[in-house]
Amino acid sequence: MKSKGLLHLYWGSGKGKTSAAVGLAVRALGCGNRGVFVQFLKNGTSHELAPLRQLGAEIFWGKTVEKFTFEMSEAEKAALKIEHTEMLRCALLKPCDLMILDEACAAWQLNMVDQDLLRRAVMGRCEDCELVLTGRDPAEWMFKAADYCTEMRCLCHPYAKGIPAREGIEY
Q1: Is residue 2 over pLDDT 70?
Q2: Of 107, 149, 130, which Cα lies nearest the Cα of 12?
Q3: What distance in Å separates the CA atoms of residue 21 and residue 103, rounded to the nearest whole number?
Q4: What pLDDT score was predicted for residue 78?
Q5: Are strands 130-135 and 58-62 parallel, antiparallel or unpaired?
Q6: Rounded distance, CA 101 to CA 9, Å?
Q7: Of residues 133 and 66, more confidently modeled
Q8: DSSP 59-110
């Protein structure tokens, strides 16, 4: 039984998917592993990125448009898809022991990345590369391929009480 190269899926409506992936990255980088962290649909300002860089992770992010996808024009969506696809291509060229594809589920569902490339990246990954996918609504093939499948469910959240996202906690 191999001890490396498994697929983790952190998904659901609750908080903590990216945080769980970052925690795994810190552990792997702390052991001297090479890490690649790819963020889809985020603008590169999340505060987890700086410490990951300091630990040696290669970081890729791609969302130059400061809108939610439902607010974007078709031209903006097409440009973002090209940006994400190129970002993923570049990330796949980097040797690593752990690759995290943050918000890959949403990028797939919203067609914001070349779906064939994303699927090949997951299904055809190097057998020594641990891979993590995060997002709210995974595709069925992601469930079937996962070795770890952890659902984050929201039972309560401060946003429901009118408390906005807090720097250093939610982002």
Answers
A1: no
A2: 149
A3: 11
A4: 94
A5: unpaired
A6: 10
A7: 133
A8: EEEE--S-S-GGGS-HHHHHHHHHHHHHHHHHHHTS--SEEEEETHHHHHHT
